[in-house]
Amino acid sequence: MNQWERQPRESYPAFNAFRVFLTVRSYPDVSKQLSKSLSLIKRWAKQYAWKARADAWDNEISRKAMEKASEDFSAMVERQLNIGRLMQAKSANALKEMDLTNLPPKFIPALVSMLKAGVDIERSARELQIEKPQEDLFVNTLTRMWRESDGDD
Fold this sequence. Notes:
The structure is a single chain. This protein is mainly α. It has helices at residues 12-24, 27-34, 38-47, 50-97, 107-131, 134-150. The protein folds into two domains: 12-48; 62-150. It is built from six helices and no strands. The longest helix has 48 residues, at 50-97. It is rod-shaped. 9% of the residues are buried.
């Protein structure tokens, strides 16, 4: 059983109050929202370890967010690798299929540019994959987002 789930012998009203606490993080606010006495809310909070359970909930949410961010990052890198490879293959095939003797000179720079762009995209994606530890990237991103949300830029 997870700490944020209803605990053994925890009444439904006490658990419902805990769920409200997860959102508002204030005993007086829980008391007001549920029209329960503040002393009752504090008693439930102590009896059922609301602060520790809320911390466990926060950790679970952060873990899931990091896991999702890691999956998204991996998918992005894979997508960019594929785009780079595709651009290289398409431009190489176009060059191979063309009769360069009759090709207007203005088309050659465009094909070379597309080939170079494909190489650059693949290289950049590989650098992300190899040189930047995902955990550091995600921790820094989440820290920045947290600071921005608190106005602490």
